[in-house]
Design goal:
It is a single chain. It is built from 18 helices and 15 strands. With 467 residues, it is α/β, with parallel strands linked by helices. It has 3 domains: 78 residues; 165 residues; 192 residues, Rossmann fold. The strands form 4 sheets. A 7-stranded mixed β-sheet has the order 11-10-9-12-13-15-14, with helices on both faces. It has a 4-stranded antiparallel β-sheet with strand order 1-2-4-3, with helices on one face. Helix 13 links the parallel strand 10 and strand 11. Helix 3 runs antiparallel to helix 10, helix 8 packs across helix 9 and helix 11 crosses helix 12. It is globular, with a radius of gyration of 25 Å.
Length: 467
């Protein structure tokens, strides 16, 4: 029972071993069932080779004297690199999901050429280090048996292909649907959404329409369908690889269906600051980060990541950015990937963030549980909640104070054109929205360390420390 206290709540489904959070380390036990599988991985040097080729997270096997006493009943215990932030597919952009899908397929092809495969195709097995996808589930690797089918094919479609097709064919973001189902988008459901013209495509017909029909037949006549599948010719290794490569080439070419322009897109070029005001804002951010030197920093309302980049340039080791605007986050991610930044932008709705959910409501952790940092910046962010979403100011600061000890917050007054635009088509019910109340509310939860007026319209940036 002692071990169970530290078990990572999302690892309970794995019957080969468990993941433990142990004194800020990530340890993985390998049980009796998983032992032969891991010994195969060892015999083929798959751990070392996969890490070297940047498919798999840095992992090492612990010697007996390195294993904590509570885990010494296991023959093998592994230790993996601790990720700065754990994220989920419903927080990724279309481009991030696409990168993750390609990473999975590339890893499968790499393993197949070494006599191994992945036994499942869960998108949760992939995380991001900065902008780069990385596979984290070592025990998903198993020996390839000649003639076997791709057991993870259905899951790959639900977790990767179907959500990508929802975006590329229908221009619908996968995030809310994925978060609602947790297991991705079922092939039967995506098939119902596709038109006759969509299904005229050979790849759609093969991977969506025919698979959907087979699943429906299996639900209606399970024994008959099972017997039909048994009679099918087994895969050759060459055919298995061909399927992986066909899917890879297809996914490489798909893009999100043409989307509308958004206000936050190209923020660094199209904003309401004068040049000297914008320069002052950048200087304040740079100075704050230079003094704090945070290992992990959160940028709330990061837009296209311009200020996240400034934070990295001035001493932040790792930055995760959040914004509700898909276009802005896509631009931020493409920039991070292109420039190889340790910056991970995520799709985020502050008034409806990722909750605790899944089995016992702990399998997938919520925003507050996962995103703690050394520092936070929230630039031109609070009015989007307090004015646009009617969030009480006190509650806003209470929430902010749980995320990071040190922070910068920008106050945007009613006299600012941005707030004026927000109030143009609604009643001004915000009598308490003022510099004085902003400051008093912030003081209730933090110690204000600095205050700078940055625009003629009255915008202010506060530096604070949670006490």
């Amino acid at each position: 029972m002692k071990n169970e206290q530290n078990i990572e709540s999302s690892s309970f489904r794995d019957n080969l071993g468990n993941v433990y959070n142990y004194e800020k380390r990530i340890l993985r036990s390998i049980n009796r069932v998983g032992k032969p599988n891991y010994e195969f991985i060892k015999s083929k040097n798959l751990l070392e080779d996969s890490i070297k080729e940047k498919y798999l997270i840095d992992t090492k096997e612990l010697s007996k004297n390195e294993i904590p006493h509570s885990l010494r009943s296991f023959d093998y215990v592994l230790e993996s690199k601790v990720l700065d932030f754990v994220t989920y597919p419903y927080e990724w952009t279309f481009e991030q999901l696409k990168k993750a899908a390609l990473h999975h397929l590339d890893f499968q092809i790499f393993l197949l050429n070494r006599g191994a495969i992945l036994r499942d195709a869960s998108a949760y097995n992939i995380q991001f280090t900065g902008s780069e996808p990385i596979f984290i589930d070592i025990l998903s690797i198993q020996k390839y048996e000649q003639g076997e089918y791709w057991s993870g094919y259905k899951q790959f479609c639900e977790n990767f292909l179907n959500p990508l097709l929802l975006g590329s064919l229908k221009g619908i973001y996968h995030n809310d649907w994925f978060r609602g189902s947790l297991e991705g988008i079922e092939t039967i459901d995506i098939n119902k959404m596709l038109s006759f013209v969509d299904k005229a495509s050979y790849k759609i017909f093969l991977h969506i329409f025919l698979q959907s029909r087979l699943i429906e037949q299996g639900l209606k006549k399970p024994n008959e369908t099972k017997n039909k599948i048994k009679k099918l010719n087994k895969y050759s290794k060459k055919y298995y690889e061909a399927i992986l490569k066909q899917l890879k080439n297809w996914i490489l070419k798909i893009d999100f269906k043409k989307k509308n322009k958004s206000i936050c897109e190209n923020y660094s070029k199209n904003h309401s600051y004068k040049s000297n005001e914008y320069a002052k804002k950048k200087e304040i951010v740079a100075d704050f980060v230079n003094k704090i030197r945070p290992n992990k920093l959160i940028d709330l309302g990061c837009n296209n990541g311009h200020f996240s980049s400034i934070c990295l340039e001035n001493g932040a080791n790792s930055v995760v950015g959040f914004d509700f605007d898909h276009n802005a986050i896509t631009e931020a991610y493409n920039r991070s990937y292109r420039e190889k930044l340790n910056f991970l932008p995520l799709v985020f709705n502050a008034v409806n963030p990722s909750p605790n959910q899944g089995w016992m409501q702990i399998e997938r952790k919520g925003f507050i549980e996962r995103f703690k940092s050394d520092a936070l910046i929230g630039l031109a962010f609070e009015h989007h909640l307090v004015i646009a979403k009617n969030i009480p100011m006190q509650q806003f600061f209470k929430w902010i104070s749980t995320i990071a000890k040190n922070g910068l917050l920008e106050f945007v007054p009613k006299s600012d054109p941005t707030v004026q635009q927000m109030l143009e088509y609604r009643d001004d019910i915000f009598d308490s929205y003022s510099e004085e109340n902003f400051e008093n509310s912030l003081k209730y939860f933090t110690k204000i360390k600095d205050k700078n007026r940055i625009t003629d319209s009255g915008r202010l940036i506060y530096q604070y420390e949670v006490i």
